[in-house]
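tokens incoming
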């Protein structure tokens, strides 16, 4: 029931490795094998738990009856991991998969006793359209909790960037067109009863919110802003379907604020009402809605560590009790039954993988469920510490520093790990990559450089057309800070990232020669012009925004060429390791081939790993072992004394 407005982002974050003199080395597999259990979800009646668990190396769906506690494996996928699931009703579950990382997700269904398996929406092979992949995606928009036989789904077959809405039978897969996209809607909003009440749209660099008029059966535009202008976006509705909550950088008096805040608003008049919550450092907030109350109960946000603030006193008291029982972790309720008598609590920290508990909401008691990675001992892991540093122009940057366990935190080899996106941010929590690298003796730094989201309009807009430029010098400044603090040995620094982070790795080697002793590019952009030439058709709604934030491939071709690492391979003086998925729809494999050609021409020492049945990041366990094993060797060869 949250407003769904999808912004283009390459979205991936990655990390690295070496021999440790500070802690006992753990097997690589301990960090990267599939979790024992992931994502417990209660059935609507609270009698069963669904969960993903590895079966023959792939994540499959398992059902646990809470009376006898006997697990039943209800799927037998051997080629692909199930990437997510949901209860359609008390008996039937939907789950989601693509094909070898192509991101054309489909919907499958099975009963809790493993009967009546059915493909409801087939994952479609990505089609090339003039070098650009057309990705067909079917996804659930609303579960229609009062209708056991149907859900609302969106599908983009007709218009790649603008999905239509269908009502789909969860038993047969039959679909009926419910709402035809007029051509510019990128996110639909439903109310608590599953009715479409509004939509977010993007139109040639402008966007806003439209309200659906049931009488005229048409959408009425209520707000319109350029993507870089102050704006507000509805995020949650109240029970009456008229009033709700919106994230806004416009105050009720019309004045502009840098950090978004959460306000009440009126859907019919679009008037901004009372302030609900704000924070001086970050954009605020993600509302936590409650289906039974049909209203907000709290907000969630992250500056350094994640925070939950409960606005409802009953929920505040409930969570205070949970936090007292589990004082050393970040705790949240991740699933509940329909009547809110039993819940699943997910508990974790930067050193503890997620543990699960069954919470009796009437008695206030917690019962342990199987943890995700019981083979990990939190006492042997490294703490991810929030940091704040300044760029050379004074811009404040928040990030994280992880020091190898057992070290004195001085004169360490460093892995600079820029996040993907770039229009996203790094966060706090258990990260297998970071822990693996710290276990091998590396300090790991993650920085929310300019252009990262969540830290206000100025921080975000300062990243415009700064790929390879100020976004890159932010990383250089972070490295220098760590050197000046005595934490890092300046002669043992490597840069590693995925997606945009892969671009930043190659840009670091080409535009900041001498700073890094090696680089690892994981599914990264290497040519800005090629990024536009091969971007999937589903990104078309965001093309204008991308041209203004990255560069215009028609009007600024020379600018894009100037900041493309493929054109500066002659500046690379250190070894490079690159890894790509052949079926990646976001960063086409041609990025790897063009970079490889340029490095060959300039006698750069490099290694290229390509996995044929992977996409934007490796999912299959055997490929992850191969990738991180090679990474470990590469880092040891280039950063050890």
């Amino acid at each position: 029931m949250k407003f769904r407005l999808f912004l283009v982002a390459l979205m991936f974050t990655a990390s690295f490795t070496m021999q440790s003199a500070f802690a006992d080395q753990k097997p690589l597999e301990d960090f990267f094998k599939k979790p024992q259990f992931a994502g417990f979800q209660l059935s609507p009646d609270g009698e069963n738990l669904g969960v993903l668990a590895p079966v023959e190396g792939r994540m499959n769906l398992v059902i646990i009856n809470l009376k006898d506690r006997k697990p039943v494996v209800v799927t037998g996928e051997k080629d692909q991991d199930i990437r997510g699931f949901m209860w359609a009703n008390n008996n039937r579950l939907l789950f989601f998969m693509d094909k070898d990382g192509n991101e054309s997700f489909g919907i499958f269904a099975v009963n809790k006793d493993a009967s009546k398996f059915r493909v409801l929406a087939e994952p479609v092979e990505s089609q090339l359209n003039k070098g650009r992949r057309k990705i067909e995606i079917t996804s659930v928009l609303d579960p229609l909790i009062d209708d056991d036989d149907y859900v609302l789904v969106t599908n983009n077959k007709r218009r790649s960037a603008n999905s239509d809405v269908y009502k789909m039978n969860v038993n047969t897969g039959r679909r009926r067109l419910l709402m035809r996209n007029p051509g510019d809607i990128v996110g639909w909003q439903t109310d608590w009863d599953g009715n479409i009440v509004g939509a977010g749209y993007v139109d040639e660099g402008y966007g806003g919110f439209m309200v659906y008029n049931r009488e005229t059966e048409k959408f009425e535009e209520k707000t319109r802003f350029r993507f870089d202008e102050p704006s507000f976006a509805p995020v949650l509705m109240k029970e009456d379907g008229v009033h709700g909550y919106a994230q806004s950088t416009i105050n009720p008096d019309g004045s502009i604020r840098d950090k978004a805040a959460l306000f009440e608003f009126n859907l019919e008049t679009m008037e901004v009402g009372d302030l609900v919550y704000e924070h001086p450092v970050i954009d605020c907030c993600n509302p936590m809605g409650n289906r039974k109350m049909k209203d907000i109960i709290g907000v969630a946000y992250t500056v350094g560590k994640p925070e939950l603030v409960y606005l409802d006193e009953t929920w505040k008291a409930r969570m205070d009790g949970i936090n007292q029982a589990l004082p050393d972790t970040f705790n949240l309720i991740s699933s509940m039954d329909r009547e809110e008598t039993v819940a699943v609590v997910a508990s974790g920290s930067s050193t503890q993988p997620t543990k699960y508990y069954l919470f009796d909401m009437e008695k206030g008691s917690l019962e342990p469920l199987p943890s995700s990675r019981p083979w990990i001992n939190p006492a042997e892991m490294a703490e991810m510490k929030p940091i704040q540093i300044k760029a050379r122009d004074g811009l404040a940057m928040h990030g994280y520093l992880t020091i190898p366990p057992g070290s004195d935190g001085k004169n360490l080899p460093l892995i600079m790990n820029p996040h993907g996106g770039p229009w996203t941010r790094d966060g706090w929590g258990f990260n297998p990559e970071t822990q693996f690298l710290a276990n091998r003796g590396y300090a790991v730094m993650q920085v929310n450089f300019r252009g990262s989201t969540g830290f206000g309009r100025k921080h975000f807009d300062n990243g415009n057309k700064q790929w390879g430029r100020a976004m890159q010098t932010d990383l250089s400044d972070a490295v220098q800070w760590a050197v000046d603090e005595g934490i890092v040995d300046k002669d043992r620094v490597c840069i590693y990232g995925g997606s945009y982070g892969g671009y930043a790795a190659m840009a670091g080697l080409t535009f900041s020669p001498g700073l890094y002793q090696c680089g690892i590019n994981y599914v990264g952009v290497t040519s800005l012009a090629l990024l536009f030439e091969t971007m999937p058709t589903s990104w078309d709604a965001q093309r204008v925004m991308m041209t203004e934030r990255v560069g215009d491939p028609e009007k600024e071709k020379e600018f894009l060429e100037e900041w493309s690492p493929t054109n500066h391979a002659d500046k690379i003086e250190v070894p490079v390791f690159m890894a790509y998925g052949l079926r990646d729809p976001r960063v086409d494999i041609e990025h790897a081939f063009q970079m490889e050609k340029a490095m060959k021409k300039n006698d750069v020492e490099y290694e290229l790993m390509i996995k044929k049945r992977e996409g934007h990041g490796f999912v299959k366990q055997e490929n992850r072992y191969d990738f991180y094993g090679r990474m470990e060797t590469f880092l040891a060869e280039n950063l050890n004394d």
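note: The CA atoms of residues 198 and 211 lie 4 Å apart.
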